[in-house]
Amino acid sequence: MLGAASPAIAQATSIRASLSATELYAGDQIQLSVDIINGSDTTRAPTTPEIPGCRVTFAGRSSSTQMRTDIRNGRRVTTNETTISYRYLIMPTRTGEFAVPPVAITTAEGRVLRTEPQSFRAIATPASESATLELSVDAASAFVGEPVRLRLT
Length: 153
Fold this sequence. Notes:
The chain is mostly beta strands. The chain is about 0% helix and about 50% strand.
């Protein structure tokens, strides 16, 4: 029989950042995720990073909890990991290389933790030839619910 005790392993608070892409077109958006692992409810939210040449907007917060149970030396050991994720949308307003500075948080114990800096590149939208589309309907009028044919040329 396995021991009845199920001690929980204390996990240190950590922080990590990731970008949804490392290259995009100027004017498009990428997402920056800042994950606080095993922070407490009193851990302060990170401030929105400032990136010259980009618009950065807060896009939301989510949280998740993972619980894992292992058998170590005949004893059941439970590990809990809670992650609070902060999401930011970044839209470069010009082409070029951009650096996301380290994002910092202060833990409930007063420790300051920082993410690693991230980087991405915004490139010019490829030129395209102009096109003209024409939409035509097979009936001059229709009643509600009546099917009509559309032609796109």
